[in-house]
Design goal:
- The structure is a single chain.
- By secondary structure, the chain is of the alpha+beta class.
- It contains four helices and four strands, in the order ββαβααβα.
- A two-stranded antiparallel sheet has the order 1-2. Strands 3-4 form a two-stranded antiparallel ribbon.
- Strand 1 and strand 2 form a beta hairpin.
- Helix 1 packs across helix 4, helix 2 packs across helix 3 and helix 3 crosses helix 4.
Length: about 100
Amino acid sequence: MSHARFNSAPANRTKRETNSVAITCGEEQMKNVFGRSDSDKDGYLSKQELKKAFSDLGVEFPSLRAMSALWHADDNGDNYISKKELAELVKYTSTMNICTNK
């Protein structure tokens, strides 16, 4: 399955402006957030697990973001994000201007 990709931000950083102070999260921190979201520990992130992750990150419309994340990062079309697809998920989140201190 081929998806159009938009590369508007570096793949290893996400950024959010808060009171004129830039908060930047690294790729490893984002991978940790999504790794903790694998609630059944099967090595895959389902739409529900993605929705919870986005909700925990404080992202608006987490259900919509989960669907969009699957569209962007699920290269094999199985409706799950595998460890191989995680880098693409992190890249997608870098365009969302999010960060977490969790």
